[in-house]
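#structure-requests
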Amino acid sequence: MTARTERPSALGRGLSALIPQKPAAPDTGAVIDVALARVVPNPYQPRHHYDDTDLAELAASIREHGVLQPVLVTETPDGYQLIAGERRVRASRLAGLERIPALVRQLANQAQLEVALVENVQRADLDPIDEALAYRQLMTEFGLTQEQVASRVGKARATVANTVRLLDLHQDVQAAIADRRITEGHGRALGGLPADGQPTVLPTVIAQGFSVRQTEELVRRLRQPRQAPAPAPIRPLDADLEKVEETLRSHLNTKVSLSRSRRGGRIVIEYYSDEELNRLYERLIGGNA
């Protein structure tokens, strides 16, 4: 699609978005070129961490091929406010561009957050903590329930609930999750300890490269009465069983533990509410989750 140049009248474009049924309204689905200097950040942008290396690589691609996908903006009296495409805007500035292709939409504050969140979730661009903060903002600032948030982003309610629960962890653990030094599963395992005890165990989990299963076992031992605080060596499951455990954990979207005995073993599936128990029951017997 060929980009058209920006029109001087901001008022006409705003009204056309609000009253699209008027025949004289311009086509807000068309791509226009807007000046980067007139694009301001989205105050509801859910993403807070940007990798400098990734931005540099994207800037190099933009210099070579241009911006292949327009950003999404809303028109303001002074220019444009970004809704989605923060990385493309930052990389375009690094690449030395003066203008960027954009789609113009008039969206309310809640819709701006939802669109930016959905785009980042679909691209897997958000770290789990940024995602959790965005979910919580939708619930606290805009009054959405977990079920409504889940519907907006196309995820199960239990997934949203588990993600938001990461914000109860100690700040050091949250930072380790955001930096990808540990996974969400590690964080949920460490959540079994009091918040002030989590930073003490975190370095051991990272330095020893513990799996989620090993971290859960470490936390279990530390919670036992009269247990010495120093972590004892942990015997991991064999690779095949650990893979089965991780697959079950991912499929059921909850904590799953496997253990072996002489004549077989045991599978422990945890749930945190009656609603989640019902979801697991339906998943296990073959119904809809």
